[in-house]
Amino acid sequence: MNPTELGTKYDKIAQWWHDRHHDSAYGIKQFQRAIGMAEKGGKALDVGCGAGGRFIRILEEHEFSVTGLDVSKEMVRLARENHPMHQFIHQDICTWETPERFDFIVAWDSIFHLPLAMQKPVIAKLCDLLASGGVLIYSFGDGEGDHTDTWHDDTFYYSSIGIEQNVQCLFEHGLALRHLELDQYPQTHVYLIASKAVR
């Protein structure tokens, strides 16, 4: 599924997403675990930021300036309204380039929408975008391959390279694994936390 098509699908449900997740507790425990491993302050990147909300507020509490990235124009519009002091960009992580490096990166329930062939390149990109001493948290599926599923009367695409290949990719790009959990077991949702050594 190309990013324009995915963005259009999320445009249609952006307000529902905002209302459901703005004050949701979903992912908060996992996010707090990761941010507890990071130094306070600095720059944060939220890949698939949606309309903002709970994660952005936690980053603010820890004195981070935030750059949010999303393929949905409507999500980005809502995020800008919710958090005018931060930067939100309508872009695809697969093609987005920046000279900046970030002290904290989150990609929660977002990169599992990428084409299967882009999983390793994007994970490598996130590793590269991480500053020395930085912390990365992202979620993915426990399994290898791709599939579609029906949600909100629409078809969404998902892909994953599985636990072993995700971890191997992190190691190959200089990150250390700090935590990995199937946090919704018996569902196949996985999240991990990794960090880059101080140089």
Write the layout of secondary structure elements.
Blueprint: H1 3-12, H2 14-21, H3 28-35, E1 42-47, H4 54-61, E2 64-70, H5 73-82, E3 87-90, E4 102-107, H6 119-129, E5 130-141, E6 144-151, E7 154-161, H7 162-172, E8 175-181, E9 189-196
Helix pairs in contact: 3-4, 6-7
Characterise this structure.
With 199 residues, the protein is an alpha/beta fold. The chain has 7 helices and 9 strands. Strands 3-2-1-4-5-9-8 form a 7-stranded mixed sheet, with helices on both faces. The chain has a two-stranded antiparallel ribbon with strand order 6-7. A hairpin with a 2-residue loop joins strand 6 and strand 7. Helix 3 packs parallel to helix 4 and helix 6 packs parallel to helix 7. The protein is globular and about 45 Å long. The termini are far apart.
